[in-house]
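Hi X.,

You mentioned you wanted examples for the new student's onboarding notes, showing what a folding record looks like when two proteins sit in one file. Here is a clean example. The first protein comes first, with its sequence line followed by its structure tokens.
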Amino acid sequence: MTDNPTLSVIVPVLNEAESLNQLYTEIKTSLDKESEWEIIFIDDGSDDNSHRIIQRIAENDSRVTLIRFFKNFGKADALSEGFNLAQRDIIITLDSDLQDDPMEIPHLVKKIQEGWDMVSGWKKFRHDPPSKRIPSKIFNFVTRIFTGVKIHDFNCGLKAYRRKVVKSIDIYGGLHRYIPALASQKGFSVTEIEVNHRP
């Protein structure tokens, strides 16, 4: 891979109208030193103003694409559509609610450039209530035991992949939670790095 890989950033969106302008600005800032990039927003059936806000962003930035689902299919389907469309060297995914910090994108890219096929974010210090943190810890522990993939946070939305990974896995239903395990089963190398998690 070259020193200046091209990037596709995939952002599933569901009713996040209030966060989208800030999210776009932060992603753009984090990518400014990259040679070539695109952002693919997948509006997964939002019933607020999300798609109109993304349309306005796309009208002013040709590197932004909006894909709109007319009903809610779920995060796995949104990611799958983004994976189908992404054509750059490295694919980044992150959630649209501003909890994932776009300034972590260069760190994910750097880790990929060390030779890994997939890098998952680890929200080591989470700003979530116990009602979310405790079930997540149990899920991650059980998944780690049964899959043999030694990472702490399978379900973090902030991830990086070489293009060959996303073109090789098929996700639907709730399988987005198991992407690191699916990638590992295909023979790809998987690791994680700590990432900032925001309230």
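Then the second protein repeats the pattern, sequence line and then tokens:
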Amino acid sequence: ALDKPAGVFQTVFGVSRYDGEKWETFNTENGLKRNMVDDIAFGPDGSTYISYGGLTGDPEIGIMRFDGSSWKTISESVNGKLEFDQDGTLWIGHVFSKLYKYDGISVEKCPDKPSEIPRYTQTMGFDSDGNVWLGVYGGVVKYDIQTGVNNNLKPLDILRLNNYPNPFNSSTNILFELPESSHVTLAVYNANGQKVTELIDELMLPGLYKVVF
């Protein structure tokens, strides 16, 4: 592990690069339009893309590209989670709910997810057929790039989860139902994606269960 030297700030104050020997920080004083950087992705040509500004309610948001010597603005209206697919297209999960793509020329908005599909996108990935898979609150969504069709592949069809009360103070009851015998892992994570505790990790029989957290 290497400690950052004095003068190299956390990502809320720009973005820092380490080349194996020295650190270099970019911020509004040397190329960036905003010091709050919320995601980084690397293009197939070796260029660096950053998403800047707050996720919601920030008046200054956007995406910038660094070619190794200078920064260029890609968008001043979209930011969020950045991922490249196998064809080199940059996909942007904007404010957890909308999906955009950048083909190197322009930023294009994809069709909105149907209302029955959970709104909040947490992560995305791409399969060998070029489909975009979105991990959302309540399940998984597969977006067909060719047809623009969303398929809600809800694990809720197999496993039904609810908790009450919600919100809660000291404890909440988590309910789930298994239609068949399955190995169940039930864990609680905080907003940063860190595991707080693991409640279940065992083979369980069909039935309705309640776990107190």
